[in-house]
Structures are given as C-alpha cells and as structure tokens.
Amino acid sequence: MAREKKEVLRRCTGCGLMKDRQEMIRVIRDSAGEIHIDDTNRMNGRGAYLCRSIACLETARKRRGLERTLKHAVDPLLYELLKEKIEKHNG
Predict the structure, then answer these.
(1) Which residues contact 13 (CB under 8 A, 6 or more apart)?
(2) What number is the average pLDDT over the span 57-78?
(3) How many angstroms separate the CA atoms of 87 and 54, rounded?
(4) Cα–Cα distances in Å, from 46 out to 31, 42, 54, 89, 90?
(5) Three-class SS of residue 43?
(6) In 3-state terms, what secondary structure has residue 37?
(7) How far apart are CA 45 and CA 38, in angstroms?
(8) Dmax over Cα atoms in the chain, in whole Å?
(9) Coil, helix or strand for 7?
(10) Domains and CATH numbers, the chain
(11) Is the confidence at residue 91, as pLDDT, over 90?
C-alpha cells in the first residue's frame, strides 16, 4: 500500500495566502546572516516564501514582509534578482 505524499503549505510574505511550497520561491538567511534565493528548497537557514508574482513581490517590499520573516535587513538588489526570476518563470 503506497503512502500519499503530504502537501506542504507555506504562507506567502506578500499576499499572505497559503500555497504548496513547490509553487513558491524560497528566500533564506543562513547562519552567517547572508540572504540567498534557495532554488533547491533544501538550504539550511531561516526561510521566507513568496508567490511567483510581481504583485506579491511588490507587496512584500512595501510591507517589509521579507525583513520581518527573516529578521534581517534585505538588500534592494535581492528584490531585483527576485523580480528577474519571477519574470523569467512567467515567460
């Protein structure tokens, strides 16, 4: 008898909706205090999730959602990298 795979839900720091973590972008703060985009969803560190939409990214930027979740200041360059990644994914 095969086990069903459990759906893992995470909350978007932009819109606040709960979605499957595979549909989202993970941003982490590692033990050294550096912030990275986690493409593998396996890196160690404190994680924050964003939907793959520009609207959620802008909302998270305006409300400082990533800063609150990661408990650390976020470089504006990271927002540009996230925007490029979202645009590339959405085609």
Answers:
(1) 48, 49, 50, 60, 65, 66, 68, 69
(2) 96
(3) 8
(4) 8, 11, 23, 24, 26
(5) coil
(6) strand
(7) 10
(8) 49
(9) coil
(10) 9-90 (3.30.1230.10)
(11) no
